[in-house]
């Protein structure tokens, strides 16, 4: 395990529902090729806070990589809904672009 993963896990022991820490840990797992743990932490974020829009894009990309196209499409759609509700048009645009690349 990388040093970053170990540090993030230590921080998460104190704040297990911290979306920023879970997102950062998920990204480290992606870098390490551990998509199972990455998915777990992205999904944990979206369960704990569906408005944490940063995790939708990365989770959907992970789902694409592992061949779960329909779930990736749903994740992009949910992310676009949340980003629109938050008036986060930058994230909305990124999600929409990735969604269109996958669907069309």
Structure description:
It is a single chain. By secondary structure, the chain is an all-alpha fold. The chain has one domain: Tetratricopeptide repeat domain (Serine Threonine Protein Phosphatase 5, Tetratricopeptide repeat). Helices cover 81% and strands 0% of the residues. It contains 6 helices and no strands. Helix 4 packs antiparallel against helix 5. The chain is globular.
Quick recap:
The chain has 104 residues and is an all-alpha fold. The protein is built from 6 helices and no strands.
Biggest sheet details? none
Distance, first to last CA: 38 Å
The total domain count is 1
- Give the helices and strands as they follow along the chain: HHHHHH
Mean pLDDT: 96
Computed CA radius of gyration, to the nearest angstrom: 14 Å
Instruction: Tally the helices.
Output: 6
Looking at CATH, the homologous superfamily is Tetratricopeptide repeat domain
Low-confidence stretches: none
CATH architecture: Alpha Horseshoe
Structural class: mainly alpha
CATH topology: Serine Threonine Protein Phosphatase 5, Tetratricopeptide repeat
**CATH class descriptor name:** Mainly Alpha
């Amino acid at each position: 395990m990388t040093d970053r993963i170990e540090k993030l896990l230590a921080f998460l022991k104190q704040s297990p529902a911290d979306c920023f820490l879970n997102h950062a840990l998920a990204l480290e797992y992606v870098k390490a090729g551990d998509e199972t743990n990455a998915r777990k932490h992205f999904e944990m974020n979206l369960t704990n806070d569906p408005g944490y829009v940063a995790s939708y894009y990365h989770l959907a990309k992970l789902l694409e990589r592992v061949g779960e196209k329909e779930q990736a499409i749903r994740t992009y759609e949910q992310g676009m809904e949340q980003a629109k509700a938050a008036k986060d048009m930058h994230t909305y645009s990124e999600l929409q672009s990735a969604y269109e690349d996958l669907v069309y």
